[in-house]
Amino acid sequence: MNKSLLSLVACASLVASAQQVTVVEHTQLLKGVEEPAYYPILNADGSQLLYSTIKTPGLKLYDFNDNVATRISDNSAVGQDAFFGSDGNVYYVTAERGEDHLIYRTGHKYDMASHKSDVVLEAQHGPVLMVNAQRGVALKAQAKSFSTGMQMGTAVYTQGSTVHVTVNGEDRSYSPVESWAGYLWASLSPDGQRVAFFAAGKGIVVMDLNGKVLAMLGNYEMPSWLNNDYIVAQNARDDGHQFTSSQIMLFKADGSFKHELTKPTSMSMQPTAAAGKVVYCSIDGNLYMMKINITE
User: Is the whole model's pTM more than 0.85, yes or no?
Assistant: First the structure.
């Protein structure tokens, strides 16, 4: 076989093995019926969505099956401090300024069965950390914390420049990459075997449960697991005063593949993903959903 033919065979092999990403559905959510919305968060099976509104401050829950949006909280300081617990309920943290001018944070649970919110962590000064767990939920704070129980399975959260991973009740602390400004957005892969997080100045890091770095995906933000093998993230640029571009990217978790899901000029941001579904918002507060299919 001559050199030219070998090159053609190699190129054909690469093409055959390359991932093919197909957007099978791309729609705007709640078009014409919702005010500007931000910070979308999908539940594990992609059937429900949390999002925050600005003009009429609060946290809302949208059900894809019923096509109904329900207001959970009227507090203006919920935003990123909300998540779906593995028990099916919604947990969120509100913040208010006290008479001493300090910020006090309160933990809440919205019960899906009763459609009511209850306080699970009384107001206290200082940060409240949300713990992503396979079974159960925890809110960690300096004075007092909340947990649904000891049998939470594998769990992860960040604190400063440390990732905390709990496995079989054992708390492990890792700082696998240097980051003077700290870590954010830690989450477990759906199978609970890997952790993705953002390290300021370094970008998205994927590691195993023993703190070994498996991949560095680049200087992107807000990683969210699409499934066990793929992650979506935000690629935003600014001039120090305002965003100049922002797009949604797709990555293979081992760092071997990346793909633009939206263009930089789309000003799309704050992605959340689950079960083959991606939801994001535009800079002006429109929510969009895309379903993607990946073949290898």
Answer: yes
